[in-house]
Design goal:
The structure holds two protein chains of two kinds. In chain A, the strands form three sheets. A five-stranded parallel beta sheet of chain A has the order 12-11-10-13-14, sandwiched between helices. A four-stranded parallel beta sheet of chain A has the order 3-2-4-5, sandwiched between helices. By secondary structure, chain A is α/β, with parallel strands linked by helices. Chain B is globular and about 65 Å long. The chains are: A alpha/beta, B alpha/beta.
Chain lengths: 460, 444
Amino acid sequence: MLLRHTPKEIKERTAITINPAKTCQPIGAMYASLGIHGCLPHSHGSQGCCAYHRSTLTRHYKEPVMAATSSFTEGASVFGGQANLVQAINNIFTVYNPDIIAVHTTCLSETIGDDIPQIVAKAMTDGKIPDGKYVIHANTPSYAGSHVTGFGSMVKAMVDYFSENTAGKREVYNLIPGYVEPSDMEEVKRLANEMKIDSIMFPDTSGILNGPQTGRFEMFPEGGVSINDLKLTGDSAATIALGKLSSEPAARALDTKCKVPYKLLDIPIGFLATDRLIMAMQDLAGTTVPYSIELERGRMMDMITDMQQYLHGKRVALSADPDQLIPLVEFLISIGMDPVHIVTGTPGKKTEKRLRELTSGMKSEANIKVGANADLFLLHQWIKNDPVDLLIGNTYLKYIARDEDISMVRFGFPILDRVGHSYFPTVGYRGGMRLIEMILNALLDAKDRKSPDESFELVM
Amino acid sequence: MIEILKERKNQVFEKGKSAYDIGCEQSSAAGSVSQRACVFCGSRVVLYPIADAVHIVHGPVGCAAYTWDIRGSMSSGPELHRLSFSTDLKEKDVIFGGEKKLYNSLLYLIERYSPNAVFVYSTCIIGIIGDDVEAVCRRVSKENGIPVLPVHSEGFRGTKKDGYRSACEVLLKLTGTGDVSDVRKNSINILGEFNLAGEAWIIRKYYKDMGIQVTATLTGDGRINDIRKAHGASLNVVQCSGSMTYLAQMMEREFGIPYIRVSYFGMEDVARALYDVARHFNDEDILEKARKIVTDNMTLLLPELKKYKEKLQGKKAAIYVGGAFKAFSLIKILRYLGIDVVLAGSQTGNKDDYELLREMCDEGTIIVDDSNPLELSKYVQEKKADLIIGGVKERPIAYKLGIGFCDHNHERKIPLAGFEGMLNFTKEIYRSVMSPVWRFMPGR
């Protein structure tokens, strides 16, 4: 009873967050930066921020995560971090020699008001940035948004710094995958490939955070979008942006800057959202849906129909990031499950509105809380008052799973205690099949474990 | 071949190759991919194991999120320390101040959880926006009759070591405030033991078997009321010298309690710790009991170790740990097991630590302060290490290089302290180094 401290009675809270369902912007920016080839993310703040982000990403991906820090001291906090950042830029290019440094700010550097473009310009004037090398930046104060918006800001920075109109339009499509796993990015690229669409995906962490065992430590592994491709995004025919918070800022910026129109879609979790992606690809590129994709979809539907009896009417509590949560809730409802309790710490009125719309047809109104005080403490209280059959969310839900003896599917960020998420997608039809498999395994394992002898079944 | 940062040239040495005047206790060069953390991290790890207190992180959500139950400090009772409390400051709080939010948060938490004390950690931003955390804490403490203690842990105010110091200052405020009538003459405090994987329980049992009362463990499986009467003990026994020697010094000054430094890693050091404590009490009975504990344990341990020792002969290890004191123990353990130490480094060692490290190491050993992944991987490969002993950020580097790894930091899953710990440690490195998977690594 680790969470024995969670009382059933719910009292209005205004100030305190207990067991958060989000984290801060800089880690999202760091993750996005890792999706550029040859990029060293740089945290402009105290040393601890960088250490915590690297540790968390390392625990989630089981991969080395490289990033540098401005190592703020008392002096830097009084006089500004310019000297630190200029020295850092110099040191990084001298020793680690990345193609690009992606600087993100922290609550500290934002509050003291460091002007990153001005500092980078100074580094440029001082000759600290070698020819052909780049320094980009995103403002990611920890007191605004969440890790999701931090990701979105760094992706937008890629557009702001690189996208340009060069040789005229090309029949190429930009894919902005959202804050998803490297495996998911791979799967979206594969779907585009199946649809015979030439694409540029950015960012692209596949190969970087799910790399192979090579017997070598690579500071900059293979993989990631190249700077050249980032420049070419301005010439693309259109952009498909997956996930409003994590991808739309970049897509909109690209539209404004280079007149590349965009289509905003949900991250393709579940068959409905995946259908919309496939249709969008078909409409934009004028290609037809190949049999291979029909086959994948057919298999997914077959799996769902074969096992619908175990899904229908099951009550689910969820905690995830908005861009995932919306299609996930839609998916669960589409297969007959009832997402009854939903929290996400990432603020956003539109998130809440869509979640309410999606759940409006349910037998009873879902508990939904978005933003301030939408935390796992509240979720636990809801569950205590109104139990569920299944939990879906990141590793932190395991306390509730254990205390209330509820099955759990690990999904989202961070997953600190299992592997698989970086290798096997949950997007697309195949990813949907994996989600179904995980959900069924969780439910049926519990049934096997908890059934009395007489109703313990061999065949399910 | 990689270059060493110019600023870091005096922080890396190869014993026997060059004059030795290691630079340490410097802040990290900006732009270095350092494995170090911040002041907040130092305070948080020291105070975190106190299980019947509320630990509230005052600042934006990140600092609370990243330190939520990551250290594995076990509690035999309450588990309040494993929850994550944040004032989750927003932009408007940064502009208008977070004092009211902190006050309301404290009231809610105290009412909800009835903790025996509250620790309020200031993060970077608090130092900039200038919240009067002291005043809020004083007020709440007065209104609720429990200690509400501000921890000055703004991340930028130094290194992790400065965070240890802030934590010690807070602990010192608690000591001397409790009733010591049940504290016996033969009583000690255990300092710098955080009960990772239940290690404090092993150590406490040794002392109990020696007839010594442990008044307070700071801070593993810690309780506020024990800490409040820590001044009643007659000796402070300090492990992990980096984090808590300062508290021991302050308690010596304030209460006249002497202290000794010990390590519980490796049978040699555990035995010495028990004997040192026994000798302090100058009591033949206690000494005899210590002898018995050591003899009994060694009789069981040595034949067990022998099996692994034969297999591990001639293997090579790289050690990169937080505090240098741990490195000393590890070198002794590895030497006993027949494993060569080819690299020894720490994040926070001082001049004396590195001098001792140099004396202990063999010729050709790389000695490094505040290292980074490129350096570590370079030397590990050059020296053909079979094993890295380190923490979370070193683990995937070892595995990418295709060699064994042992977490001697927050993520240890089995106790590595005491005599049992010596065997556990040996088994763990045996399992990792001798795993059949390395045979299939590229380049083997």
